Amino acid sequence: xxxxxxxxxxxxxxxxxxxxxxxxxxxxxxxxxxxxxxxxxxxxxxxxxxxxxxxxxxxxxxxxxxxxxxxxxxxxxxxxxxxxxxxxxxxxxxxxxxxxxxxxxxxxxxxxxxxxxxxxxxxxxxxxxxxxxxxxxxxxxxxxxxxxxxxxxxxxxxxxxxxxxxxxxxxxxxxxxxxxxxxxxxxxxxxxxxxxxxxxxxxxxxxxxxxxxxxxxxxxxxxxxxxxxxxxxxxxxxxxxxxxxxxxxxxxxxxxxxxxxxxxxxxxxxxxxxxxxxxxxxxxxxxxxxxxxxxxxxxxxxxxxxxxxxxxxxxxxxxxxxxxxxxxxxxxxxxxxxxxxxxxxxxxxxxxxxxxxxxxxxxxxxxxxxxxxxxxxxxxxxxxxxxxxxxxxxxxxxxxxxxxxxxxxxxxxxxxxxxxxxx
Length: 423
Known about the structure:
Blueprint: H1 26-31, H2 47-52, H3 54-78, H4 84-114, H5 121-143, H6 150-178, H7 194-206, H8 210-217, H9 230-254, H10 260-280, H11 282-289, H12 295-310, H13 315-321, H14 334-358, H15 366-391, H16 400-403, H17 408-415
Helix pairs in contact: 3-4, 3-5, 4-6, 5-6, 6-9, 7-9, 8-9, 9-10, 9-11, 10-12, 13-14, 15-17
């Protein structure tokens, strides 16, 4: 029905030959094909595509607010004041329903993604939450006192995003902790596990939302509340928990390997990757140090321990060339000659076997790879050189080339081609 106080239509009559496009309502603009909201994920859109709609939803949240503000200002100039509330409520209800449904659809999409262990979806949810939190005061200021409390619907939607993000972040800890340690999932060459690289990448991406995640974690972190920067401490606590369960899982996964050397190199590769990632990102390192000030030193110590453990693979080889207090004799008995032959033969066999096996092992970091090669050279070559000088010229065999297969330079060259399948 026409409003009695509405200005006379004649006041707005124009020449029919100069039509202007009719001004679209909020609901029409939001639903217009090609408009921002129309590109948001609908219930029929796959999960992946609906999550890609996060940016469109963020834009829609801003556009929707600006359109409502514009409609309210326009309404105040043409609608009687006592009709403002009713007209505005009726005007915004359909698009508000649509806006809330789209937000809830995105939340449902995030939850479905988690069923596939796709935690990238929470980053989209965090971005939406961050934007909604910045707009909520304006929504509340615009929509206060309206029937049905539409402002509270926006607040409720924001709270749903908060609870979803919080739960997803904690689910990620459980995922890292419980990722199965199956032999079929293990890299055959002992390189950095996908779980390690993806976990570190996820934490790096979370840094974009440092303050927001800290705020989400703070109510559940009693120790962080009494410090100077509580949100950063809460974030650091979360990061440290992820790294702790990651290290525990890597230790469990390493046990899938039968070869002791491969087991050690796997732990070494993964510890080194985490340490290098922390050192390269001063922000991430300082964040974790909020919870564990010694985190870098802990990884350095763990890496050093694994390097020492790795050298145990040379135990049998070294036994072949290390002198155990036996006197040097110019005249060799049959037993002496056989003993020397066994030493050379044992050394050759051990070196060939270790080389054949470890040539296919991987150390992806170039500096670490060369450093381990150098360790091997420093450990083996001096002992072999001494052994060779002691026995090479003794008449222990009529066929010295059968036993003295390697010169010192040959051993160095072989040790420097470890961890290279193409060698």
